[in-house]
Amino acid sequence: MSSNQHPMLNVAVKAARAAGAIINRAALDVEAVRISQKQTNDFVTEIDHAAEHAIIDTLLGAYPDHGIWAEESGREHGRAASDHVWLIDPLDGTTNFIHGFPVYCVSIALLVKGRVEQAVIYDPTRNDLFTATRGRGAFLNDRRIRVSKRTQLKESLISTGFPFRPGDNFNVYLRMMADVMKRTAGLRRPGAAALDLAYVAAGYTEGFFETGLSPWDVAAGSLLVTEAGGLIGNFTGEADFLEQREVVAGTPRIYGQLVKLLSKYSKFASAGEKAEVRQNTPQVVEPALEAGIQADDPPPEAIPPQPAGE
User: Region (Disordered) spans which residues (predicted)?
Assistant: First the structure.
């Protein structure tokens, strides 16, 4: 840990590394990990719980009067009325982890009076540590990072997440993906939103969008993006996105282009825009299911065309 870092960031780094050590040990024999299901396609493991406990113990050991808002245990720890609240996702990308797919991370953010002030995202598989303190820039392993310099969507790599919960509108998401995909150099779905945001901050991708995310998924990554020179908000471009369950991030120019494409899909879109989306969205998923085709294996005509060079 750097002596130049904010003391609270140093504690968050210590907590993230403790959780990462638990995750890495479990990854050596992932088939032995006990798994339960919170809802359809939404899994939690004993490692999520163990990592979360390690993080909470470290944070409250240093700051017992702080509040905690964690993915698995909610707000049952710490002092709920505190101005300082830690948002914790102990293992973002649990589905990847239980399959041995090495794309997952620990995400920790500190909110002070509702604003993200400290951020840590730790990738234990690569030992990559992303950190940010408001006003001090964003870093990867103590090296300053900046968003990509690309300004055209057609040259950009964009990441996203696919809908997977009951009630998600798959048809609208396919339309949204098609609108973005055909205008970019490529669309990716790594499977861990916090890392997706860290990668925007590091310049690995030019943008990211997803719906259905919780505050602990995006809090740390949002500060990394803005401290690296990027922008983040909801689909209509408003900055108050943390609890709105829709987020778009990117370089300043790419962010603007993504908002222009995605705004009509926002929950805050006008009634006319929403009606247009419904009218122009073909029903491609439900008929396939009725025909006995799996939802993750739609007919070829349901899949938006891939850009050249994929």
Answer: 287-310
Alpha-carbon torsion angle 131, 189, 49, 1, nearest 10: -20
Segment 120-131, tens digit of pLDDT: 999 999 999 999
Q: How confident is the model at residue 34 (pLDDT cuts 50, 70, 90)?
A: confident
217 annotated ligand binder: yes
Considering the domain architecture, whether residues 73 and 201 belong to the same structural domain is answered as no
Q: Does 92 count as an annotated binding residue?
A: yes
Domain termination residue (choose one: 91, 115, 144): 144
Q: Could you identify the residue written with the tokens 């020179």?
A: 229
Quick one: pLDDT at residue 30? 83
- For residue 166, pLDDT over 70 is answered with no
Are 186 and 123 in the same domain?
Answer: no
Check the annotation: does 65 bind a ligand.
Answer: no
Domain count along the chain: 2
Please tell me the distance from the alpha carbon of residue 155 to that of residue 152, in angstroms, as a whole number.
6
Task: Please name which of 222, 275, 276, 272 lies closest in space to residue 244, comparing C-alpha atoms.
Answer: 222
pLDDT at 107 over 90: yes
Q: Which domain holds residue 179?
A: 153-291
Task: Read off the amino acid at residue 131.
Answer: T
Same domain, 169 and 90: no
User: Which sign, positive or negative, has the C-alpha torsion 18, 147, 241, 180?
Assistant: negative
Confidence (pTM): 0.86
27 Cβ contact partners less than 8 Å away, ≥ 6 residues apart: 97, 100, 102, 124, 125
